[in-house]
Design goal:
506 residues; Rossmann fold; Helicase, Ruva Protein, domain 3; five-stranded parallel β-sheet; globular; binds adenosine-5'-triphosphate; CheY-like_superfamily
């Protein structure tokens, strides 16, 4: 049974999941809006079922191949490049679980989703323990199928798309930057990748924390096993525990079967806990126990299950400040703070801006089918002088927009000035847009892939607007502004810095 909560256009959210618990599907927009650019293999002996799944995925842009039995499917999956595989449990000859086991060994970075019409919860457990990425009951729910496949495809890309450090290669993502601060990051990265220690990656939004997490994984000793990422901020608090720890049948109303959580799924592999600062205090305590004891109990379970996981965590939050406010556990902080990589904000390494500009322009020119992109020297210098509250992500988005706007003509300083003014205009006031219009605009940006997560973006816009207005009305008097806002002066100063709002005096 699926309940869709439609906010605005295609928001897909709450769902009574196939294990009977509430589940936050992906927190992203419908694949219909997103367009799934992926190559998927469906292994199913039922022509009807294969067609239903294939049509549902083709409709959103995926390229789909179908195999009718396990042997053929396995051969295709091993030979050809796919982003994800969907296999039925019951197949003539080589069964679905065997397909999963074989691919887990030979192509551990290829996510495999098991489908079955059997109501036996044991199949799901065996599949996930055997290395399946996820499990879908039949008859398939089209939206659920698309959502799970979309997640699987992004997981596959996170694992398989190489992250090059300091150099540019086709078909790879690159960490760009020659500044001293980035050189330090690369050194830390090299040192920590080959050790099993838990690494905490810190840095403002858009500074490249996810890239670093992928690089740590790819250059680490568990690169031949899966990389499982959980965004703690994208999953509602009360669902996060079950997502991580799993649950036993009957653990809570509606938990109709046992569910394997991400910790267990990441046994012998790597688990990336993104936005760890957004985890609530109770769960922080439970996470600390996992880090110390390396064993878990499923929600509602008694059995201690050993988990051998390499943890990578990331946050853009100021954990020290959170500890002071009683929002983050100090013991967990000390546990996590042993090995850290801190990414510098872009405004502290403006010397890297020209390199990033070259890199992104070349990439986007290729994506947009343009021969080459050109940008005026003054325009690059202008970019070097900006505060970049959204860091590399913001720079990347501005360049993308500039390229689309100029369609092959040289990008000038004025173009960038205009685009930056648009993107950082005080949307609620000066822009003359209503709250509803802004909301729609932000949702549209998320659908276009310009921003990651409309929720965080709205929060950022509101904060920026509120702080900007307070500073303006107080004529730059931070103490006054802080009082009006009900924030400590320290918090306000940090936030102003984060958003690059100055014009202030203490
Ligand atoms: N040093 C870099 N070189 C090249 N691209 C980068 C670099 N840093 C960030 N990016 C790009 O900027 C975008 C944002 O990076 P990423 O998602 O890793 O940031 P983040 O720190 O995890 O942000 P958030 O805290 O908002 O999740 C991505 O498209 C990433 O590829």
């Amino acid at each position: 049974m699926v309940y869709h909560l439609h906010v605005g256009m295609e928001w897909r959210g709450w769902q009574i999941d196939r294990f009977g618990g509430m589940r936050w599907l992906s927190g992203r927009f419908s694949d219909l809006a997103m367009k799934l650019k992926a190559r998927i293999l469906i292994i199913d002996a039922s022509e009807h079922d294969a067609k239903v799944a294939a049509d549902a995925l083709r409709e959103v842009g995926a390229e789909v191949e179908v195999a009718e039995d396990g042997e053929e499917g396995l051969e295709m999956a091993l030979k050809e490049p796919f982003d994800a595989v969907i296999t039925e449990y019951r197949l003539p000859g080589v069964g679905g679980l065997q397909v999963i086991a074989a691919l887990h060994v030979r192509k551990p970075r290829l996510p495999v989703v098991l489908t079955t019409g059997m109501r036996d919860g044991d199949v799901a457990i065996r599949a996930i323990k055997g290395g399946a990425y996820d499990f879908l009951p039949k008859p398939l729910d089209v939206e659920e199928l698309r959502s799970v496949v979309d997640e699987a495809v992004s997981a596959a890309r996170q694992m398989a798309k190489p992250v090059e450090i300091g150099k540019v290669k086709q078909e790879s993502d690159s960490l760009i930057g020659k500044s001293r601060a980035m050189a330090r990051v690369y050194r830390e990265l090299a040192k920590m990748a080959s050790t099993p220690v838990t690494v905490l990656i810190r840095g403002d939004t858009g500074t490249g924390k996810e890239l670093i997490a992928r690089a740590l994984y790819q250059h680490g000793h568990r690169a031949h096993k899966p990389f499982i990422a959980v965004n703690c901020a994208a999953i509602p608090e009360h669902l996060l525990e079950s997502e991580l720890f799993g649950h036993e049948k009957g653990a809570f109303t509606g938990a109709v079967s046992t569910r394997i959580g991400r910790f267990e799924q990441a046994h012998h592999a790597t688990l990336f806990l993104d936005e760890i600062g957004d985890m609530d205090m109770t769960l922080q305590a439970k996470l600390l126990r996992v880090l110390q004891e390396r064993r878990i109990q499923r929600v509602g379970g008694r059995e201690d299950i050993p988990v051998d996981v390499r943890f990578i965590a990331a946050t853009h939050r100021n954990l020290e400040e959170m500890i002071r406010k009683g929002e983050f556990r100090e013991d967990l902080y000390y546990r996590l703070n042993v090995a850290t990589i801190t990414l510098p904000p872009l405004r502290e390494r403006t010397g890297d801006v020209p390199l990033l500009v070259d890199y992104f322009l070349a990439r986007y020119a290729e994506d947009f089918g343009q021969d080459k992109a050109s940008i005026a020297t003054q325009a690059v210098e202008y970019l070097e002088r900006q505060p970049w509250p959204g860091n590399v992500r913001q720079l990347q988005n501005i360049l993308r927009k500039a390229l689309l706007k100029k369609r092959g003509y040289t990008i000038m300083e004025d173009d960038l000035r205009e685009l930056l003014a648009e993107s950082s205009a005080p949307v609620f006031q000066g822009g003359g847009e209503s709250f509803a219009e802004v909301t729609r605009k932000v949702l549209q940006q998320a659908m276009d892939g310009e921003i990651q997560g409309a929720y965080a973006e709205m929060q950022r816009l509101m904060e920026q607007e509120l702080l900007g207005a307070a500073i303006e009305l107080s004529h730059g008097n931070k103490a006054k502004a802080a009082r009006w806002l009900g924030l400590s002066r320290l918090t306000l100063r940090e936030k102003l810095q984060q958003y690059g709002i100055d014009r202030t005096k203490d």
